[in-house]
């Protein structure tokens, strides 16, 4: 039965149609927020997937170009692979919802969001986040929801909920907060050095608004929700745990995992598994879940060590950061490079500078943003974790990590007027054992400074972990989590920032939410750690941006011309500008406002190109001396090219102080001469003198 539900959300109407379309999905909601329309569906397989030890959740966010009145670019003229924005949106939907499904659920679940119409006043990403939560809540799929999401902006210190596209461009904050009834379950932020106290205020203002949305979802579920279906539990039998503990007592497991060397720990666990496989060789049902059982045994052991004994696997104190190292200029002939090491996590970052014309062009649903000048790419090869597998290009994780490090540095980049370059920063993961995205932030900051990019302030990042007990006030926060603490812990809370405030946040959790003291404690702990990293590691390697770009980096001269003169610089079919480029060996870019960017490696060629361009657009001044090339000779004089579209005549009487019988006695075609302008008549004809030139 078709039912319609409405609420006012941040000054606009949110409407949910249930039972109108996609009735064969387990749950479907046709979402309307203003004129933004997203179809959100939730579907699950009837049976669990065999041979897996994880919950197979897939989240899709499909950007249909018809939603903004566009035909896709390229030859195919249909939507291709997901854009970077679509991938990042899918990750933001996935992160708060995944922990709310049963841990022993192995049925395939797909949450699909199809963007069908985009209203610039109402975010399609937010609409999809709410749509997925509603579609899952009303479905028969087991789900401990509902949850809700709010976006927050900030202009002139004032918080704005679910900002429109124009407000987003002006905002100092782009914050997304997801909540359950009681707790915050996901935080994602990009910020222009927002102070910690202001960030916490914004997070909990969003959490409060989320409660109104959850009450709205409860109403929908009460009227349209299906009973949750039963499923085959994939939980490990308790008798298997008991048998394992007899063969491997808790003290033995603790000894196996208590080491700061990842390879040693993995070898210890491998030997334990071999021992158990031999012992249970005749119990096929136990062998099928043995990996999961050993994983959970490790998890319980590590969590008990941390929570009860405040003892970390590598022996560190709760607030202690692993050994740090940093250096710059490790790669020759690139424009900038740096390496940052934190324990067994190591990132090498390389910066490349190019003209603004090489900025990334974006073909997406946001019509306000069509290019991206700063690009951060993150690579995660299998050797960084001691594995072997072929490289298939960046996956969703790599794209997400690159976007987080990119978001961390954008607030401190110089403006295009200050530094007219496109900038590509590439983070290569050499070694990984926890929080490579935060190491990427530190490495890229140093690499930018080494490349001579005049960033406003130094940025560092760190991750804070969490292990919780039975009650809300029984928890331990861990500074600088390594891989094991991430796998077995409850939270990965990443924060980047300067000495003044936060530039980015990404929070992943595996539990049903965080209390306010945990959020505040994690943010405070991350500030303390990032300041320590900057002072003790990064600043000794490079304290400030270099005052010039590297020798091999392109140099850029910028000049301004009258936009009406742009055509004269370009010439018919590009003839003039191509001739300048060929003669001087530079690259020239011109925007519609008349900004001209001359890019090259050799200063002499750049200066020559600038001189030619100025000669084209600047008016010829009577009495001024110019240098030009003789291009034509007549009986009565010689024509001199002052610029590609301006010729002047030296009358034969003005060639020399004495009588000249023949023009060729003084000048020939191709000669470069200095001439003085005697007159520019009403028709623009220019009279020159060779004999009067200084």
Automatic annotation (TrEMBL):
<dbReference type="GO" id="GO:0006396">
    <property type="term" value="P:RNA processing"/>
</dbReference>
<protein>
    <recommendedName>
        <fullName>Polyribonucleotide nucleotidyltransferase</fullName>
        <ecNumber>2.7.7.8</ecNumber>
    </recommendedName>
</protein>
<dbReference type="InterPro" id="IPR012162">
    <property type="entry name" value="PNPase"/>
</dbReference>
<feature type="binding site">
    <location>
        <position position="486"/>
    </location>
    <ligand>
        <name>Mg(2+)</name>
    </ligand>
</feature>
<dbReference type="GO" id="GO:0003723">
    <property type="term" value="F:RNA binding"/>
</dbReference>
<dbReference type="InterPro" id="IPR036612">
    <property type="entry name" value="KH_dom_type_1_sf"/>
</dbReference>
<dbReference type="Pfam" id="PF01138">
    <property type="entry name" value="RNase_PH"/>
</dbReference>
<dbReference type="GO" id="GO:0000175">
    <property type="term" value="F:3'-5'-RNA exonuclease activity"/>
</dbReference>
<dbReference type="GO" id="GO:0004654">
    <property type="term" value="F:polyribonucleotide nucleotidyltransferase activity"/>
</dbReference>
<dbReference type="GO" id="GO:0005829">
    <property type="term" value="C:cytosol"/>
</dbReference>
<dbReference type="InterPro" id="IPR020568">
    <property type="entry name" value="Ribosomal_Su5_D2-typ_SF"/>
</dbReference>
<dbReference type="InterPro" id="IPR027408">
    <property type="entry name" value="PNPase/RNase_PH_dom_sf"/>
</dbReference>
<feature type="domain" description="S1 motif">
    <location>
        <begin position="623"/>
        <end position="691"/>
    </location>
</feature>
<keyword id="KW-0808">Transferase</keyword>
<dbReference type="InterPro" id="IPR036345">
    <property type="entry name" value="ExoRNase_PH_dom2_sf"/>
</dbReference>
<keyword id="KW-0479">Metal-binding</keyword>
<dbReference type="Pfam" id="PF00013">
    <property type="entry name" value="KH_1"/>
</dbReference>
<dbReference type="Pfam" id="PF00575">
    <property type="entry name" value="S1"/>
</dbReference>
<dbReference type="Pfam" id="PF03725">
    <property type="entry name" value="RNase_PH_C"/>
</dbReference>
<keyword id="KW-0963">Cytoplasm</keyword>
<keyword id="KW-0460">Magnesium</keyword>
<dbReference type="InterPro" id="IPR036456">
    <property type="entry name" value="PNPase_PH_RNA-bd_sf"/>
</dbReference>
<dbReference type="Pfam" id="PF03726">
    <property type="entry name" value="PNPase"/>
</dbReference>
<feature type="binding site">
    <location>
        <position position="492"/>
    </location>
    <ligand>
        <name>Mg(2+)</name>
    </ligand>
</feature>
<dbReference type="GO" id="GO:0006402">
    <property type="term" value="P:mRNA catabolic process"/>
</dbReference>
<comment type="similarity">
    <text>Belongs to the polyribonucleotide nucleotidyltransferase family.</text>
</comment>
<dbReference type="InterPro" id="IPR004087">
    <property type="entry name" value="KH_dom"/>
</dbReference>
<dbReference type="InterPro" id="IPR001247">
    <property type="entry name" value="ExoRNase_PH_dom1"/>
</dbReference>
<keyword id="KW-0694">RNA-binding</keyword>
<dbReference type="InterPro" id="IPR015847">
    <property type="entry name" value="ExoRNase_PH_dom2"/>
</dbReference>
<comment type="function">
    <text>Involved in mRNA degradation. Catalyzes the phosphorolysis of single-stranded polyribonucleotides processively in the 3'- to 5'-direction.</text>
</comment>
<dbReference type="InterPro" id="IPR003029">
    <property type="entry name" value="S1_domain"/>
</dbReference>
<dbReference type="GO" id="GO:0000287">
    <property type="term" value="F:magnesium ion binding"/>
</dbReference>
<dbReference type="InterPro" id="IPR004088">
    <property type="entry name" value="KH_dom_type_1"/>
</dbReference>
<dbReference type="InterPro" id="IPR012340">
    <property type="entry name" value="NA-bd_OB-fold"/>
</dbReference>
<keyword id="KW-0548">Nucleotidyltransferase</keyword>
<dbReference type="InterPro" id="IPR015848">
    <property type="entry name" value="PNPase_PH_RNA-bd_bac/org-type"/>
</dbReference>
